[in-house]
Amino acid sequence: MTKAETRQDRFERGMQVLDEVDGEAGQRVIDSLAAISPELGHHVVAWGFGEVYSRQELSPRDRQLVTLGMLTALGGCEAQLDVHINAALNVGLTPVEIVEALLHSSVYCGFPKAVNATFVAKKVFGERGLLPVYGDER
Amino acid sequence: MTKAETRQDRFERGMQVLDEVDGEAGQRVIDSLAAISPELGHHVVAWGFGEVYSRQELSPRDRQLVTLGMLTALGGCEAQLDVHINAALNVGLTPVEIVEALLHSSVYCGFPKAVNATFVAKKVFGERGLLPVYGDER
Amino acid sequence: MTKAETRQDRFERGMQVLDEVDGEAGQRVIDSLAAISPELGHHVVAWGFGEVYSRQELSPRDRQLVTLGMLTALGGCEAQLDVHINAALNVGLTPVEIVEALLHSSVYCGFPKAVNATFVAKKVFGERGLLPVYGDER
Amino acid sequence: MTKAETRQDRFERGMQVLDEVDGEAGQRVIDSLAAISPELGHHVVAWGFGEVYSRQELSPRDRQLVTLGMLTALGGCEAQLDVHINAALNVGLTPVEIVEALLHSSVYCGFPKAVNATFVAKKVFGERGLLPVYGDER
Amino acid sequence: MTKAETRQDRFERGMQVLDEVDGEAGQRVIDSLAAISPELGHHVVAWGFGEVYSRQELSPRDRQLVTLGMLTALGGCEAQLDVHINAALNVGLTPVEIVEALLHSSVYCGFPKAVNATFVAKKVFGERGLLPVYGDER
Amino acid sequence: MTKAETRQDRFERGMQVLDEVDGEAGQRVIDSLAAISPELGHHVVAWGFGEVYSRQELSPRDRQLVTLGMLTALGGCEAQLDVHINAALNVGLTPVEIVEALLHSSVYCGFPKAVNATFVAKKVFGERGLLPVYGDER
User: Fold this and answer.
1) Cβ–Cβ below 8 Å for A99 and B36
2) Which of A88, A108, B134, C135 is a plausible cystine mate for A93, CB 3.0–4.6 Å?
């Protein structure tokens, strides 16, 4: 932690962490920001992933559970939920666990936000061939 | 309230309440959730409508006024506003009252959320042949 | 609506409306703002009450239902909920209806915000000798 | 799931789940609601704990991670964070993991909400003799 | 401030202020509201612009900085951010300053809301031929 | 930007920036976090101030305008508003400009959040002997 690093070193360290979570989606966000705010893209990677996400005190799977809760509660973050539901699958959460986390969110955030987040999960699971999570019987 | 009910009994009780409010839109939400989170659909109906909405302490019309206020304030709940502006019409609120409730919301939530909600009302009223609510003179 | 009014005329018109809702609490807010932002106090009265609240398209009772929904959903507005739960009682909502509106809010906003708002109602009802609303049997 | 239950059965089932998480804090909330909204207290227990929290699809520890994320993101839920940071400790999250989840939240919710939540954790940990979590060296 | 004005006087005063900021976008919002809530359109202009924005105590450029911060923090206000990023350019903020204000917002609101707002800026800057703001090198 | 820095170098760089804004309040926050989350305190300084606030693309005065807008809109951030209203004064915003920024916020966030923020300003101005900002005449 105490060795000297350049800005580029830290970006690269963040990219290594991001690659393990969801490198493709992360790269898309950075590319989309390149012409308008490369600095924002830099900090998402170098700070968010390189300095926070990389810490060993909480596992990647646990971080995604916290993140799903936050993005559902914030509202209006459907694009980020898309990225992080993919990431959640990549770090070992099962579709059943993700769906249950969003059901759980209805107790604390109410149904509208829980339903909005669940429809993002439906889109992501559909793209990855993971539907149906449950049979459609009630 | 004290008789024993199965899970299915409670769902059916909720569906009866939902049918009086907006059965078609409710059914669409439940159907959309069937392959991903039938449990969430179950709770929207069995708990939200069967156990809360069904209570006699507040009229359906009054519940929709509270709901319009909440959904406008939360933000990012345009899909739910669509359902509940339809429901508001179904339980007896007039277009003028709905528009006024959203104007009123600008005092407490600011103009951006009030305008967003009013545009959802415009869409719903247009679909139901209720436009113009006002002439366009100022 | 088309007669010419001075700024002071409009403030006085707003105060008349405010007096019917909760003049005492309103006056306290305006007094508290006098040394820092009299302009904000002016607009709460002249615009909020004089130009929006005063309109006939929605009854004062209905406006309070919308307002309770908004303030509960926004969060962090306990001081305003205090004022508006008093106002709600003043314009004819019963304690049972207010409590039910806040129970209803749990479906859309989740339990934490519903519980926070209900504790404000408990404080207001206690100050006005309206407790218990329900016996404490379950 | 299909056996018939009375309202009281479901409340008792919820209390059993709540007792394993944080029965004392839960009982305090229910007691505080008794004179104003016993129905809200009923639903927190019977629905929140009895029907959602009780499900096996997500472990209690995982549910608390999601909940910490939501309560931090919502803001203004310090009282609920107090209950759920206690609950998080009770179901096996370590102080280091809780602190890390709140640090993680700063990436998605910003520093103000992360700092507010961390100060609630400091209060809870202090009451339980768990401070310092870290030495105060930087 | 003390001369008598009609409702129409005040609307016209607001339109003059709005014209200096972004008359075209403002007119579009008012036109869109004409058939559903002309009163809301009136208040956006007559109150928002005529009575608040018009005050000399803060420059138009400074007002847009505050507004960018608010709209980013609220979330779900992409349509309003579009209008106000245009307005910000019109009153003298540079693309670099706008992008930096949104980067700054990530510290207080978190990355998701900062990224959402930055993508709105990218759209607006693209429409006005202002891209790239930065070269795409990192 | 490209020279190699240790973690401690970056913290010290951030402290220099923070000292120019509001070193005393910043130090209090870091001290309060020391026993629970020194890492969070580190990132507030090293990232928030050292890497974002320190950039030349936006002046400290402009950053505070954006920050006042965000903290008012988020709600529940009274402690942070206290720090940043002090900071705003320190970097050259006048009491009149700060009060006006908060009045302006009522248009976009509604009166409750604007009033809450204005009461924080009243507290800060009182502590610094800056009241009354306006005479109490209306």
Assistant:
1) yes
2) A88
Q: Give ranges for CATH 1.20.1290.10 in chain F.
A: 58-129
Q: How many CA atoms lie within 13 A of E44 on its CB side?
A: 27
Q: List pLDDT tens digits, range E76-87.
A: 999 999 999 999
Q: In chain D, positions 85-114, which contact chain A (CB-CB < 8 Å)?
A: 96-97, 99-101, 103-109
* Interface contact flag, D109 E109, Cβ < 8 Å: yes
pTM listed for this prediction: 0.96
- Return the pLDDT at D107: 98
**What's the gap in Å between the CA of B3 and the closest CA on chain D?**
5
Which CATH number applies to F58-129: 1.20.120.140, 1.20.1290.10, 1.25.40.10, 1.10.1200.10?
1.20.1290.10
Over range A32-60, report the average pLDDT.
97
| CA distance linking residue A14 with residue A19, whole number of Å | 9
3-state DSSP of chain A: CCCCECHHHHHHHHHHHHHHHHHHHHHHHHHHHCCCCHHHHHHHHHHHHHHHHCCCCCCHHHHHHHHHHHHHHHCCCHHHHHHHHHHHHHCCCCHHHHHHHHHHHHHHHCHHHHHHHHHHHHHHHHHCCCCCCCCCCC
Q: Is B7 on the interface with D (CB under 8 A)?
A: yes
ipTM of the complex: 0.95
Q: Residue F5 is nearest to which of A5, A39, A47, comparing CB atoms?
A: A5
Chain B CB contacts of C66 under 8 Å are 65-66, 68-69, 101, 104-105
Are E133 and A36 an interchain contact pair (Cβ–Cβ within 8 Å)?
Answer: yes
What integer pLDDT is reported at residue A4 of this predicted model?
93
Residues of chain B falling short of pLDDT 50: 136-138
Contacts D51 to B, Cβ<8 Å: 43, 47
Question: What mean pLDDT is predicted for residues D59-69?
Answer: 98
- For residue C137, the one-letter residue type is E
- Quote the pLDDT of residue E3: 87
Query: Which pLDDT does position F70 carry in this prediction?
Result: 98
